[in-house]
Amino acid sequence: MLKKYYKIHELTKENIKCDQDYEECFIIKEGSVLARDTSGKTFTLKPGHPIGFAEAMVSRSYELEYILKEYTSVYAFKTSEIRKALATSSSLTRGMAKYSVDRIFNTKKSKTYHLIDDGFLSKQKARFPMIEFADDQTIFMRNQKPKFFFYVESGKVELHSRTDKIVATYYPGDSFGEMALFTDSYRSATAKSVGKSTLQLVSRDYIKEYFENEEPFVKFSLICILERLRAMNNLRNLII
Predict the structure, then answer these.
(1) Tens digit of each residue's pLDDT, the chain (240 residues)
(2) d(Cα 75, Cα 144) in Å, to the nearest integer?
(3) Backbone phi, then psi, for 54, in 5-degree steps?
(4) Structural domains in the chain, sorted by start
(5) Structure pTM?
(6) Integer Cα distance of 149 and 146 in angstroms
């Protein structure tokens, strides 16, 4: 279903130089690429891994340094088509993409996000209940299969790693826990309420039903952005 959107070619050093805005983004078909962040941490991209989809959404150059390890072929997609697909998607998908890109690039967060700005949640109160949590109450645990993702209405939530390190903090207007729903993976950290908090719960079943109505290319583009977020979380030691 995606054949009309890509071309297959060899990946070259010119395709992945830093500090340039490119017309293509890629999925590795064959071979591997080493990715390195500004602190020197590295990870290896293998067949199926994306390059450049998050940058495509916001028209910016690569922040990671990509190093070719061997002959590598890729499925090449036009960045303009990625932007067009996400711009015409539902408010939920646009919100997920925008929030994920903000996390990938550590963009300074605005007070509210697209879903909240559009009144999306307020229109779905019957589907998305408000739940109160007490101080230090566990919201979900590491290695659990997710059933919801969450919006912080009031209070504060912390994510704790396996070693009980605080790896993220969320405040009113933030969402968390959505990546596990979209990527069908287990929780990578434990979430706890700091003081009393009120969260709005968005169910896995609703997300699945909603997301399945998107065009295949839209779903593909968002999943590629979420995969980049997963990789950045690994580099920042969020999944430990």
Answers:
(1) 799 999 999 999 988 887 666 789 999 999 999 999 888 888 999 999 999 999 998 888 888 999 998 999 999 999 999 999 999 998 878 888 888 888 888 876 554 454 554 456 666 656 688 999 999 999 999 999 888 889 899 999 999 988 888 988 999 988 888 777 777 788 888 999 999 999 988 888 887 777 788 999 999 999 899 889 888 877 776 444
(2) 34
(3) -65, -40
(4) 3-86 (2.60.120.10), 91-214 (2.60.120.10)
(5) 0.79
(6) 8
